[in-house]
Amino acid sequence: MDAVYLETSIVSHAAAWPSSVAGVAVLQDQAKRWFVEQRPFYDVVTSQLVIDEAGLGDRDAAGRRLALLDGILVLPVNPDADKVAEEIVRRSMMPASARIDALHVAAAALAGVQYLLTLNCKHIANAHELPRLYRLLESLGLGGLLICTPIEFLGGGDDEP
Asked: Which of 32, 37, 42, 102 is the most buried (most CB within 10 A)?
């Protein structure tokens, strides 16, 4: 069974109260649907980084996020993650302020998972940087990771044939 690394934005959107902002509400719905419709078909993993991020902020919201992560395999810390993340930042694929996002990519790639699921399109699923990021991972012997969003698993919606 293929493995999916859940990044924090997925859990945050899936656990959040419905947003009144239409675009955010759509992303929340996609994250929730992924958990219901797709999660059973994959080995789902995450990292301590996600657990730590999910536990921050409002206690009630953090509790909902952590409940979604309950029972999901937490990957062991790979000592090479810092080096890979640093290379991502050094090559300007992500800014230094987004180092934790680079660590998510590093953790997923080093674990050999097939998919990194995210709604963070600013730094992680950034179409402008993905080709460079994939080339870097390949050059480090970490090819094979596909960074994607829930809609790529769910399809285009009910109006498609």
From this structure: 102
DSSP string covering 21-73: SHHHHHHHHHHHHIIIIIGGGSEEEE-HHHHHHHTSS-HHHHHHHHHHHTTPE
Domains in the chain, ordered, with CATH?
A: 3-154 (3.40.50.1010)
Both structure tokens of 127: 């179409």
Helix, strand, coil percentages (3-state) for the chain, rounded to 5, are 55, 10, 35
Measured from the Cβ of residue 60, the count of other Cβ atoms closer than 10 Å reads: 10
d(CA 30, CA 24): 10
Q: Whole-model pTM?
A: 0.93
